[in-house]
Amino acid sequence: MRVNVIGRDTISARFTGAFPIKKLNMTREQFAQFLAELKNASDNGQDIDAIVKGHEHENIYFYNDGCIKKILANEKNLVLTTDLINAALNLIGTDRIKNPKLVNPFIPGEIGYRSVEPDLLLVNERGTNVPRDRISVDVQHETGSFFKDRLVLYVSRLTNNMVKRGDVPKLDNLHVISFQFFNAFAESTNYRHKVQLQNQEQQVYFDRQTVTLIEVEKFLKNAQNFADDNSRLAQWLRAIDTLNREADFSEFANDPIFKILQNEVRLCNFSSRYMLSSMMKDVDEACWKYTGAMEKARETAKKMLLKNEPIDKIIEYTELPESEVLAIKAEINQK
After folding, report:
1. Is the pLDDT confidence value at 16 over 60?
2. Is 258 within 8 Å of 239 (Cβ atoms)?
3. Same domain as 26, residue 122
4. Which range marks the domain in which residue 239 is found?
5. 173-180: strand order across its sheet
6. By CB distance 3.0 to 4.6 Å, which of 48, 180, 182, 243 could disulfide with 143?
7. Against a cut of 0.85, is the pTM above it?
8. What is the pLDDT at residue 3?
9. What is the number of structural domains in the chain?
């Protein structure tokens, strides 16, 4: 390998078959491209260990599923994970999560596999006769008509798993945390949303089931609106963004938690084998397949509506709900 340093920010390397390496500034798209190029290099018989080593002092993209799993589901980093959970849930004092245990820990040496289950799952005991906490954490980059359904499915699965068949239901405190790169509540000025079962007077019906939605993109794109927000969650979002951008981290250098985070996001902690595992895939293939099928069905419905086909026939042919077909028809009529 011959390495040429160009300026301060660019490193290029040449291998047999030519695989250029540039200094990474880890947006989601750039990291996905890097993983794709790494796979292509592997397929062409190139030295992928050397390629990864060329970036060993740079950072991964934190919000990638595989990166989240390796960092936050690692037993040695529980202090990091606990701090983030308490920040996301805005828990203070005696309400804080103190000694969580990982249900699905990252096991060094295993390359893992993808599933539809949450990226992180933990439990936290609170003492005799006190419901324990069950905490789920995941990251969602893509929205779609199916997302809310899938989120509710997560909640129902986690709730169902708390009670064995035939036992008297005694439910844990369920906290589902989702870091999202789209807006669940676009009109709201808040980026953190606590969702619970409520009646029409906004009274909480069941306080042991909470979904916390964190709109990461809203926070970052409207940074000036949250400049005075010094909450722990805001600090976390700024620290992660700074590391993703490979920007000056001195603002966070004296924080022991963020110092751990800075060390853990280094690419030198990730083997080439793990980088090529299914855990690191940037796209949830099941979601894309579903989204593609839905878009195709909508296009078909639109064509049939333009041909004045009956609504019932369109519903039967596309398997779209009536409300969806009527919404498409309304869009056509507005043009």
Report:
1. no
2. yes
3. no
4. 65-264
5. 101-102, 120-124, 133-140, 173-180, 204-215, 192-198
6. 182
7. no
8. 31
9. 3
